[in-house]
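Deliverable D4.2, example record:
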Amino acid sequence: MQYPICSACVASPALCPSCSERVQSGAVSPLDVSVSRFMKGLEEKYAITGVDLVKTHDIDSFIIIVGRGKISGMIGREGRNIRLMSSEFKKKVRIIKEGDVRQMVADLVSPARITGVNVLYTSEGEKFKVVIPSSDRRKIYMDEKTLNKAVEALFKGEVIINYQ
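Output generated by the structure prediction step:
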């Protein structure tokens, strides 16, 4: 399993100068460090393989973890690892697979379905328009404000959510 920080820093309570500089510059967040160390313990205990921790985002009452590879190992059997992380960090945890915009948003709002994700290119930057069936509105675990913040954090652009 690979982490945003080096393997020596994952195993020790202190950060090396290189990782410390990455945290100070903002390339790696303190939450990335905490989740990496927690995942290292889970990796050793439950033999998690084939998955990498890419980035974490702290948004309101949620921690969103972006993984690469076989994220089912990160989720754990029957959601065991998610429950352990939720109790450790005192927030709800969503794990999504790194990929294109549509797939990542679909993972984020699951079990709700997505009808479409459109990218609007404007002079201010990219805007994302996410279309969700109105019948699936209550299936989304996040409120609309939190969902907007989450998509903005993941893709660095403004979000418009439409329910049809």
